[in-house]
């Protein structure tokens, strides 16, 4: 009789022990609060990921660039920025301290199609504060890896405890390959299905960045 009562009690205690950890992991993924979000410079468009709101994103002109605070992952772009091969897209971005805590990624996208609808498409090039990079493809609600997993590169300047760090990302669209570079070093090249279309920024949640430049050369 005593043994029969012990098993349910042990199971209950095990579940109670796991619950706080699960709750912590869930909280870890929550977007940070953004004060003053939802108002953007003229000509700029913002599309948060599903579940995100425009007010979760703050993107404002600052000096010769733009300052971004992300409570939700989003793409940020100007409809006038259209890349028609061949072209080169380059941006220098400064990652602020604390922004790498969640290993969130930031970078550029090309080949944007139907960005205001359910059938959105684009290819994006990301780096993280831990010195890794990845290339992905968005097709509607699905996002698949073009390259295999997160890969480390010594070319990436990693985040640090004090002071911002700058990285320059470049996507060079040529035939027959597209070249992806960090600080002038190529990390991958290969064919990309769709390269023509809107270009812009792809920024994940829980990040604070200064976009010092964004240049499209045709």
List the helices and strands and how they pair.
Elements: H1 2-28, E1 44-48, E2 57-62, E3 65-70, E4 74-83, E5 87-95, E6 105-113, E7 121-128, E8 132-139, E9 142-145, E10 151-152, E11 165-173, E12 178-182, E13 185-190, E14 197-203, E15 207-217
Walk me through the structure.
With 218 residues, the protein is mainly beta. Helices cover 12% and strands 48% of the residues. The chain is built from one helix and 15 strands; from the N terminus they run αβββββββββββββββ. The strands form two sheets. Strands 1, 4, 6, 7, 8, 9, 10 and 14 form an eight-stranded antiparallel beta sheet that branches. It has a seven-stranded antiparallel beta sheet with strand order 2-3-15-5-11-12-13, with no helix packed on it. The longest helix has 27 residues, at 2-28. It starts with a helix and ends with a strand. The relative contact order is 0.22.
Question: Which geometry do the CA atoms define?
Answer: globular
* First and last CA, distance: 80 Å
The low-pLDDT segments are: 1-28
The share of residues in extended strands comes to over 45%
- The overall number of domains is 2
Helix content: 10-25%
**What is the chains' assembly state?**
single chain
Examine the secondary-structure arrangement and name the CATH architecture of the largest domain: Sandwich
Tell me how many strands there are. Answer: 15
Sheet having the most strands: 8 strands, antiparallel
The chain-level structural class is mainly beta
CA radius of gyration: 20 Å
- Assigned CATH superfamily of the largest domain: Exo-inulinase, domain 1
Q: Tell me the name of the CATH class of the largest domain.
A: Mainly Beta
| Whole-number mean pLDDT | 88
Helix-strand string: HEEEEEEEEEEEEEEE
The CATH topology of the largest domain turns out to be: Jelly Rolls
> Count of DSSP helices?
1
